[in-house]
Amino acid sequence: MLHPSVAPEFRAASSVYPEPQRPFFHVLLDRLQTDASPPPAAAALAALDADQGSPIEWSEEDVVLLHWRLLKEIGRLADPETPLEEKFDTLRWVFTERDKDLRPFSFVSCLRVVGCSPLSPLPYCGLVDVEEVRDFIRLAIPHWLQQTLKRYPSWVREAIVDHPDWVEARLARNPQWINEEVRRFASEGDLFA
Fold this sequence. Notes:
By secondary structure, the chain is mostly helical. It has nine helices and no strands. Helix 1 crosses helix 3 (60-75), helix 3 packs across helix 5 (107-116) and helix 7 (154-162) crosses helix 8.
């Protein structure tokens, strides 16, 4: 999973004190889920006060932190309180078409930049096997979605499981669609009961 150029201090622990190694993604997910985010760079703060018409200067550190911020969305997948529409958006970004993987802020690019840049908030880990990370997410998604769906009435869960494309299309048009339907259903009740 890690590139052979991984710094020696991040390689396996000595055999004298063997410790179970956690896959890179578990460490990354723990870090992505923490609330402590790096402080914004001075240039980014100055850009907030900049005149709307002038171009914003981005430092290399600002760009790396933006890649980090995008990756932090992965950490929200495991949070049951994250709205379904946000989870679907993040999953579309992670599992996008392979021809988009080389674009500047694709999931693949974010992993590469955050894993390899000395300006990254993570310790250097080198190139990461993107497909291994995607496989981990793919295996964890049913549990993560199930935790989120527990918050909804059974008829919502059934609609999502039985007709995911239909629900996704509704959410794309109106991200509050499920909440509105739950409120409407609660006020009107079941017409067929």
